[in-house]
Automatic annotation (TrEMBL):
UniProt KW keywords: Kinase, Membrane, Transferase, Transmembrane, Transmembrane helix
Record GO terms (molecular function): phosphorelay sensor kinase activity
Protein name per UniProt: Histidine kinase
Transmembrane segments annotated in the record for this chain: 21-39, 51-72, 84-103, 140-165
Residue ranges of every copy of the Signal transduction histidine kinase internal region domain listed in the record: 182-255
Origin species: Hymenobacter aquaticus
Pfam families named among the record's database cross-references: His_kinase (PF06580)
Length: 372
């Protein structure tokens, strides 16, 4: 989560993207103003009078350069393969710099009392030879080289800023993707599963089966966790494991006598954190397709090993006949593995093997410790 910037009442996440961009630009141009003041006050380039006109000319074009690169030339032309437009934009900036500095120098000469040395410098660099220099290669090359020194810092900042903009958009897309994934997973807890469970409950109620109360309790816990506790980025591992227990208890009640379900948890969940509904798809899709499976014995094994810094999930399904629905290529398994790559990059391993009658999965996940 973003950290507090100043005081308990202000957080960066309360600012809109537009407000954040404006504040960052104000900060950037304040820093650049200081940079240009120092640049034009260096020992070998020092003037006796005010230098703010030169600083303002350079800063003004730096603003144009930065916004032109970050918001137009790089994203809309260069990265979309419109090389000629990007080249044309670069030429416009080079000629624009020459014209901008010429106009600034003429206005400064006309209206601002400046040091004679600065006046000669501005006239010699930016006024003399204009506009004939615009159509001559050597003067324009000299103008471009002259532009690089004061504009190199804004150029570097432009590319860094664009990288930050891209990274911010990527993170926003990833957050949206993960939110959609969680919504999808909630929807997959799953209408057919709920209908079947309610049907089982109805049958048990009519038969006065004493297990009906357990079905209600397990289903209530499952729905409470799914609907009210999974919007956070991380949840306690203990709650995720309780959710798996409730889910398996309901599956056990629904499955025929030929299905054997075993579940074992080793270790203690003592404050570790995990992304919500991360383990469930791997377990839930293990049962997918049993309604269409050929009659015969089938065994479902689930084992969870909890360590202080990691959790391991071992799943296995063994059936006498080929299983009608593939596991490894299931869309929900693919989505769960993408989610692991986004939320736990370099912090997980998945070993998955599948043949006609057997599936084995071994997932190891490094955990987030509890933060008080």
């Amino acid at each position: 989560m973003p950290e507090t910037l100043a005081g308990p009442g202000f957080r960066w996440q309360r600012l809109s993207a537009r407000t954040t961009a404006i504040l960052l630009q104000v900060l950037l141009w304040s820093l650049l103003w200081g940079f240009y003041v120092l640049w034009n006050s260096r020992p070998n380039y020092h003037f006796a009078g005010p230098i703010w006109p030169l600083v303002l000319m350079q800063l003004g074009f730096a603003v144009v350069l930065f916004n032109g690169l970050v918001y137009l030339i790089i994203p809309r032309w260069l990265l979309r393969g419109r090389g000629w437009l990007a080249l044309a934009g670069a030429l416009v900036l080079i000629y624009g710099y020459r014209i901008w500095m010429y106009l600034g120098a003429r206005l400064t000469e006309a209206y601002v009392p400046i040091d004679p040395v600065l006046r000669r410098t501005l006239h010699g660099f930016y006024v003399a030879g204009f506009p004939a220099d615009l159509v001559r290669f050597t003067p324009m090359l000299a103008s471009f080289v002259g532009m690089l020194a004061p504009m190199l810092f804004p150029l570097v900042v432009s590319f860094l800023a664009y990288a930050l903009v891209v990274d911010r958009r990527r993170l926003a897309l990833e957050r949206d993707f993960l939110h959609l994934e969680r919504s999808y997973l909630k929807a997959q807890i799953n209408p057919q599963f709920l209908f079947n469970t309610l049907g089982t409950l109805n049958t048990m109620t009519h038969a006065r089966d004493p297990r009906a109360g357990d079905v209600v309790l397990h289903l209530a816990d499952l729905m409470r966790y799914t609907l009210y506790e999974t919007d956070a980025e991380r949840v306690p591992l203990s709650r995720e494991l309780e959710f798996l227990d409730d889910y398996l208890a309901l599956e056990h009640l629904r499955r025929p006598a030929t299905a054997t379900i075993t579940h074992e948890v080793s270790g203690e969940a003592a404050g570790q954190q995990i992304a919500p509904l991360l383990l469930h798809p791997f377990l839930e899709r293990l049962f997918a397709g049993q309604e269409a499976a050929l009659a015969g014995p089938v065994t479902f094994r689930s084992r969870v090993l909890v360590r202080p810094e990691a959790v391991e999930l071992h799943l296995e399904r063994a059936s006498a006949a080929p299983w009608p629905q593939p596991y490894a290529t299931d869309a929900a398994i693919g989505a769960a593995r993408r989610r692991l790559q986004l939320q736990y990059p370099g912090q997980h391993t998945v070993e998955l093997t599948e043949d006609a009658g057997r599936v084995r999965l071994h997932l190891t996940l490094m955990l987030t410790p509890h933060v008080r």
